[in-house]
Amino acid sequence: GENVEQHPSTLSVQEGDSAVIKCTYSDSASNYFPWYKQELGKRPQLIIDIRSNVGEKKDQRIAVTLNKTAKHFSLHITETQPEDSAVYFCAANFNKFYFGSGTKLNVKP
Amino acid sequence: GAVVSQHPSWVICKSGTSVKIECRSLDFQATTMFWYRQFPKQSLMLMATSNEGSKATYEQGVEKDKFLINHASLTLSTLTVTSAHPEDSSFYICSAFTLAGSSYNEQFFGPGTRLTVL
To answer: How many CA within 13 A on the CB side of residue A62?
Structure first.
């Protein structure tokens, strides 16, 4: 099955700085790569996604890049704010969804 | 986005009892529902894939006789944890998935059920 690896496990940045989280996947059939933000005790929230026919997608302060050849994709958050503090998960999908191990992002005011 | 409900939101039960968790898609028909479990400070682990009218497909290492899944309609899937033990205590989350419309590939999560087995 699919194997998704995510780094780093924790990330601490100063407010206003950028944060980058990276994921790799193993199954070349995966064609959809969502990113989720999860707050404690809550459901994951989709923040951005990218399909395999696109290399980059941006939505305000959030962007995702995908390198199909290398099988890796990254989440970029610019101008971080304290409310961005949460756990972020990447996932890869073909017929099922497999999640990365998560990154705890702490944005210090 | 589409709305998925999950019931109950939390449950405490005695060891050896069975617990049923319901997952409903409220405003769309879900061709597929996924069941995940999440331990504290860990990722979501896919337990099984549930398609309406057919048997669920379980991930490796998940006991199908312990985690019974029924997907009786396009809007309802249930997960029953049978003979629950303390190690089954976890956060269980369902998601609904549809191939229709502009949300192709997107899954919509329920709010989760916190199960505590004493």
So the answer is: 15
B112: contact with A, CB 8 A cutoff: yes
Structure tokens of B64? Answer: 């199908």
The residue of chain A with its CA nearest to that of B5 is: A43
Residue B95 DSSP symbol:
E
Which phi and psi (to 5°) does residue B106 adopt?
Answer: -75, 140
Q: Please report the pLDDT score of residue B106 as a whole number.
A: 81
The Cα A37–Cα A42 span in angstroms is 10
Farthest-apart Cα atoms in chain A, separation: 41
Do A34 and A91 contact (CB within 8 A), yes or no? Answer: yes
Averaged pLDDT, A28-36: 93
pLDDT at B54 over 90: no
Higher pLDDT: B98 or B84? It is: B84
**A35: which chain B residues are within 8 Å (Cβ-Cβ)?**
none
For residue A51, list chain B residues with Cβ-Cβ distance below 8 A: 105
